[in-house]
Amino acid sequence: MPPGKRELARVERRLIATLTEACETAKAEIQGFVWLTHTADTASFVESLKVIWVFETQAEKQLAEANAKARILELTAIALQEADIELTPSERNVRFYSEQEWQRSHGGDWQKRLAQGY
Fold this sequence. Notes:
Helices cover 57% and strands 15% of the residues.
């Protein structure tokens, strides 16, 4: 049976808290990292969950993908585990983007882009 609204809200709150911790850790460790967010469909929360790591520039994003990807996946895994979400971070559910790229493709409108699906 799928979780009810209350359970989903509880999971969402836990996830936000644990991703916030991951974000603060990454800001101190990973050059160019600025923030992260997540998206999920409430009807299939775990299956549709995407964690989006955002970097200032395209070059910093590429550097992180080359040199810090394992650490980012580790931070994501810790956050998911602490939120009691059974999901292994992978390229399917952990994404990298840059402010620079988003500005160019969507005029910096993050809400519009996230609403379209990542």
